[in-house]
Task: structure prediction
Amino acid sequence: MARKTPGRKRLVTKAAGKSARSGRANKPKATKTTARKPATASPSSWTPREIAEAFRRFQAAKAEPKGELFHLDPFTLLVAVVLSAQATDAGVNKATPALFAVGPTPEKMAALGEDRVRELIKTIGLFRTKAKNVILLSQKLVAEHGGGVPRERAALEALPGVGRKTANVVLNMAFGEPTIAVDTHIFRIGNRTGLAPGKTPFDVEQKLLAVVPDAYKLHAHHWLILHGRYICLARKPQCEKCLIADLCKWPGKTTAA
Ligand code: SF4
Result:
């Protein structure tokens, strides 16, 4: 025969007594209500067919999507992406033509020195740290990579100021690797639409890599960034202009589709 657990009974009684004293006994638990729509759709709500259809439409609308950062080659792309952290591409593009005119190679960039680079990029946010990183990464490219930009993720991420997102952009745009760099736009779209929900950019990246058909992986990054920048805006998504409105799972979308 099973024995009763006196301790458990005492605990329950004590808790009930506390509720009664605080006036909460027998009251149904309050349910929070909010007028705002949830920030995310339910996870994994897209079928493979829907995902393929979304990217088919992105491709039909823009077969060769391009990034908007001004650059001349892999080195200037790398520098431009480092400068774009927490800054807009348009803001970076205002400063980089003058910077790349005098520092088009790692050797020439390193020779400019930190003060000169800082002066040239002072209109960009976090310019002091970025100037330091641009000089350090240029020196490292000269010392360890013969003045070239490495094609390996680990070597890229070992450069000062270069994280996973920057490495993904360089691998994708400079070397044609099917990487997906998750920036603020892609993170939002992945979660909002239910296409690739995740708590971190890395989660969203891994989910996108798992669900985006191979044929669309090379350009997926740019299609999603452009979609987030011009249509699926953070504060007011323009669902009425959206190519994938009928597929999107966000409960707050403003179309009936
Ligand atoms: S329907 Fe609206 S929320 Fe959904 S992807 Fe399009 S713009 Fe974004």
